[in-house]
Write a structure and sequence with these properties.
Length: about 325
Amino acid sequence: MDAGFGLRRMGRAFVAASMLLAGTAIAGAQQIEVHNTMGPGGSEEAAIQRFAEIVSERSDGRLEIAPYLGGQLGGETDVLELMNLGQTQMALTGGLFMSQYAEEYDAVTIPFVFPTWESVEHFLMETESGKAMQEQSLQRGNLVYLGPQMRAFRHMTSNRAINEPADLQGLPMRMPQVPVWMDVWEELGVQTVVIPAPDIYFAMRTGQIQAHENSLASPYTRQMWEVQDYIITTAHLSFPWHWVASASWWNGLDEADQQLIREAVEEARAYGYEVEQERDAYYREALIENGMTFIDVDQAPFRAVAEPAVARALETMADTVQADIEASIAATGG
């Protein structure tokens, strides 16, 4: 990544912060809170800042965005409850709301289903299943769904070279406590070990685990080159962020402001995608420079071995889901 990348991000952050501060001085400006659980510095913050710039500019300062990063008002559950009650306005949130309000349409949480980001986005925005998810989130959770934002694909790290699924047998691998993720990886032959995220590095150093899975930000920020040798590009999941709004607040906006916010979200999503891609490429380069070896595997055999667990997960979902997954993959060339 070139040196200008960080400067561009800093410059945009400064502009956004300046516009937000300027907005506070405008009499009668309507404040719109936007929540995210991640701290500053990622594509999440970049997208929210871009959203703030657009909204401030196109509303002539009538609408002012107030970002709340790092879970300042609580975790996903807390913010979803506030939105349900109409006590806050917007969030760039994870997928918890789907498991709460539309679990039977939550195919994007299952590893080894969608091969590209475009197929994930198509499923959520264009299919009958995606639209049913949006409707149930509105009816059950008081949420207006505005669109997904890309998070880089998750891969696995290991202190053992992995070239094919057979190499995974018996490998102690850290997993978050997400049952469908554990079931899929156990189908592939690993020994799943649930460990809190802050303890991953120590567990690797002590030999409790020998592998983990996440986006490349995880081995980079945790300096895993000190305890891991390989990154295997399984690309098993792109677990998106989602832009949502409280329907109680949204329904009080006039049609023009609703359209302004929808357009701003679309542009912010696109900008967040660009930043996430840039950062993912940077992490790969930096991890290699620090001594980690990338093994770019053929992903098809991993998907084939995982298929029984994937099928079990899909059996619990709505009748439209399987066909909509296939249609999304076909429509996006996946």
